[in-house]
Amino acid sequence: MIGETRRRRAKSKDALFDNGPQSEVENDEGADALPALSAQDASSYILGMSAELRRLAEASGFRFLAYLLEMVFQEAFRLSGESGTAGSGGRISKKLSSGPHSAS
Question: Least CB-packed of 45, 84, 92, 103 within 10 Å?
């Protein structure tokens, strides 16, 4: 009985990996066409969204996810600086502003 359950689980996992992992973004399922954005607008939007998502992850105790979102935030901040923006309302991540790669 236990062996049978393990075999079923293994088969279902194999079926998942046969097609390779695919997200909705890759499949274009449920995706509306994105509006044309300038690099500046896109980086500013990602900057704001990643900051909000990072705060949500931290509040929920998702430490690794919060870390990854911090990396997204830092990259969006770097890109927004390259494209001439000051960031989302001047808000800078605590970690970014106190880190060795401070944007000051």
Answer: 84
Q: Is 58 contained in some domain?
A: yes
Domain extent at residue 91: 38-99
Q: Which of 53, 56, 55, 97 is nearest to 74 (CA)?
A: 97
- Per-residue pLDDT tens, the chain, 104 aa: give them: 566 666 666 666 555 555 555 555 555 555 678 788 899 999 999 999 999 999 999 999 999 999 999 999 999 999 988 765 444 444 444 454 444 444 43
Count, in order, helices (H) and strands (E) of the chain: 5, 0
Contact 50, 75 (CB under 8 A): no
